Amino acid sequence: MNNEVPRTPTKSKAQVAGDAESRIPSPNATESPKYRKRSSSPKQLPVSASEHQSIISHTKKPKNDVLKATNGDNSYMAHCGVEEQGSESSSHMTAFYKENIRILNDLQDVMFQKKARLDTLKDELMENKNELKAVLLKVETYKEEKHVKSQQLKLKINDAKKLRDEHNTKTKFMVKNHELEGQQLRAKSVAEMNRRENEYRQKIEVLRHSRIKQLQEKREKLREEISGLDFQVSNNKSILQDALKECEQKHKLSKEEALRLHQAELDGLIENSRELSAENDSLRTALDSKLKVAFRAKNEDFERLSFSLQELEQKLKALRSENAKIRNDTETFSRGSIESLAKRDDLKKYISASTSELGEIEEILMKEETMRRKLNNELQELRGNIRVFCRLRPRSNQEANQVSNIQIDDFNDDGGTQQMHIRRDSKSHTFTFDKIFGERDSNKDVFDEIGQLIQSSLDGYNVCIFAFGQTGSGKTYTMLNPKDGIIPSTLNHIFLWVDKLKSLGWSYDISGQFIEIYNENLRDLLKGQDGEYEETSDSARLEIRHDAESSTTHLVNATTCKFASQEMISDVLSRASKMRSTAATKANSRSSRSHSVFIIKLRGYNSKSGEHSVGTLNLVDLAGSERINSSQPEAERLRETQNINKSLSCLGDVVHALGAKDAVKRHIPFRNSKLTYLLQYSLIGDSKTLMFVNVSPSLKNLPETLNSLRFAAKVNSTQMMK
Ligand SMILES: Nc1ncnc2c1ncn2[C@@H]1O[C@H](COP(=O)(O)OP(=O)(O)OP(=O)(O)O)[C@@H](O)[C@H]1O
What we know:
Strands 1, 5, 6, 7, 8, 11, 12, 13 and 14 form a nine-stranded mixed beta sheet that branches. Strand 9 and strand 10 form a beta hairpin. The protein is elongated, with a radius of gyration of 66 Å. Among the domains are: 141 residues, no CATH class; 333 residues, Kinesin (3-Layer(aba) Sandwich). 62% of the residues lie in helices and 13% in strands. By secondary structure, it is of the alpha/beta class. Bound molecules: adenosine-5'-triphosphate. The site of adenosine-5'-triphosphate has 14 residues, from helix 8.
């Protein structure tokens, strides 16, 4: 679209003059009444734009009229009714006409000047418009830039928010973990208290039952005794009464008989004679004494029987009071039993309420355990599936004065990384890792950092932990130090955790294999172990077999040790390291020239939820990473070094390929070394890998230290693809 202002045609002064000449009629031409009218006020010059316009319109019509007059059209004059006047007035008219023509020409000049000015203004307007356009364009560009910058700012703000959320999630997770542990401890102590309370209650119950039984038995016995005695007493009483009655009867009868006889005799004697009276008296005295003796004897019998009766009555009384006491006791006991029964019912109710509460708590704990597993995995993934930790071993006494210039920065909480700077020949080398342990950090400090990774293997993920570095840099100390190395600490941690998880229904089957890879040959470090180890025949060669369907690896002919108790750990590890050192003496420090791989398989089953988990934890002490030493050109050493270099570079290649963006489509060279082939399924997918790069502080080891750090830094720059 053309936005230009239509331009007024401009003319040069000569053109304007020429035009005016051609347009303006001759001064001799007949004057039109209109021009005459104007002559009456010759000094009235147009000053405004409207007057200017009206002058132009006035001058246009006379132009045609004048032209007609110039061409000798007298009818025009006649038509106008103008009469011929004298030559004086004609010259006057000519002057006037000329004056008007001049004014008109001046006006036309003014008009053209104004037109020219208008054009200039139009040009300026155009220029301004263009400038405005350019300015608008610039404004647009600035706006776009501003938009882009605001988008970038938004992204940065989002990133910052994400980091803050991440931090919050981490904090929440830690807090939750602590709470979880607290709850578990609380639940455990409550369970323990309940168990003890139950035990005591059961014991009290048993004691109470046995005591009641004893008392009941005693009461029964006493009842029997009482009834026996009652029976005896009533029996004796009737016997005594019968005897007494008989005695009295007999006595009465004998008395009556004797009296009757005596009376008869007396009567006979009285009747017979007085002489017999003396005899009668003596006879009577004799009879009296006889009767008295008999009576006394009978009396004594009676008294004896009365006494025994009294005794029996007293005994009966005592037994009765004892019986009453026993009854009282029994009543007290039954009252106690009723109270105990009420208490038992209360306790039963309390126990059933506690059991249901415990069930709920268990359910919550199980859910929290599942949540913890998920969160732990998310946290590990946030930290990266491949992580690299550096560890600087402490200087020995001999190295004290010959140490490298190594400086370790503080841990950067924002980036989650740590840096170290090494000076060599006035050049500074900086390396960044996920964590750096200095000379003063202990194996415990190291284990505290990797505990959650070990947890992942219990949760059913595959985990690989490598120790990499030159000979003497502290790999074996980090991995296998008997007291607190990663391997013994890991096994102890596993046992502790398995014990904790028992209350949530989890049970674990823990088994281990320990092998060595020397010159690309596998060797069983648990071979020949006794006890609960699965033996393999001496001639059997170790073989690696993969099951692609279940993504698992099987080591054919390798001894598998089932860890049934924590006590087995030190025994198995000391035997394995003995086996390794036996080989070392044979093959000249072979331990530093071979890779050792400790494979722990953790199969978990939850009887309450039916969940299964299978995790493999590979703890690898890699062979020394130093380059070929020209001072040791023996063929055997060369072969060893070549094999080590090949397998280490293959490990680097595999990790690198796994970290590539197109890793899923890419060929991963697992088969290029026995080590990577063995660990194939523990390096892909959800697996987690941690590499320790162990370095020495010694100045003489500096070139190897830098090599190791470069290798590790390359691994650290990798982020595993899923
Ligand atoms: N963090 C540490 N604290 C104390 N001593 C250590 C530490 N790291 C290593 N050492 C000591 O340094 C020496 C060498 O360590 P170590 O044998 O573990 O090295 P290495 O890298 O495994 O060597 P090789 O490859 O020969 O097995 C040992 O005497 C060990 O006790």
